[in-house]
Amino acid sequence: MTIRISETIHKWMGWCPAKTAMKSSMGISGYGIRKGETPGSPDRISSDRIVDYVPTWTSLLQFLVFGTEIAAIVAFLKFVNKYYPGTDILLLLCIMLVTGYLIIYSDIKRTTIESGPDVITVKRPGFRTVHIQKSDINNAEIIDNHRPVPQFVLAILGLIIIPVFSVVSIYGRYVEWISGEILTPLFIAYLGFFIVISIFFLVIYNYARIRKRYPKSFVITTKKNKQLVIYGKSFEELVEIRENLL
């Protein structure tokens, strides 16, 4: 749920065969594609990838579920705040901290994708392992990497609007604290919240900036309305990945 809110996602590095295993390069140097040769290992392994695993947002049910989850979070925060004022701020702060950490951690570690005869396994540090049955794949294509939100919009939002808003809000809470309108714990909670929200939007901006570097992406769409998006530096690189995974 936290992962969806922020949406998003991710770099991962992972699987390593046994020390005695033999490995042979299966493609262009530096792309991290190799053949598994230990007993029971996957046919192909692609490591050090930037990958997103997200809903297609083409199903009404997905929007309903997402909207219900958001409404449930808001209702829960309001309920808790009714009995413990300021707790909603702390809980929201924790959600943003965890989400931001997962985004940064996954972008640093990156992903390992394993392809067997019947299933594609996506190992994402910080996220649950995803298993995609090849029989469930509805479409697989290499497309131009177009971000849903222009980079300059995120830059203005994350580098200017949110920081300025946070500074003004912190000053307002400071005035209230000095005048005795709010208690010290609540002021500290607001201070932490506005600092974290500024950092969180910087994380989102960096998340989009990293993916903007890649002109192409290989998109696998499943029958469950999910998409595995693998980012690549060139069309040739993604063609090789497609041939090794499918």
TrEMBL record:
Q: Which UniProt keywords apply?
A: Membrane, Transmembrane, Transmembrane helix
Membrane-crossing segments per the record: 54-77, 83-104, 152-174, 186-208
The answer to whether keyword Acyltransferase applies is: no
What is the protein's given name? DUF1673 family protein
Q: Which organism is it from?
A: Methanolacinia petrolearia (strain DSM 11571 / OCM 486 / SEBR 4847)
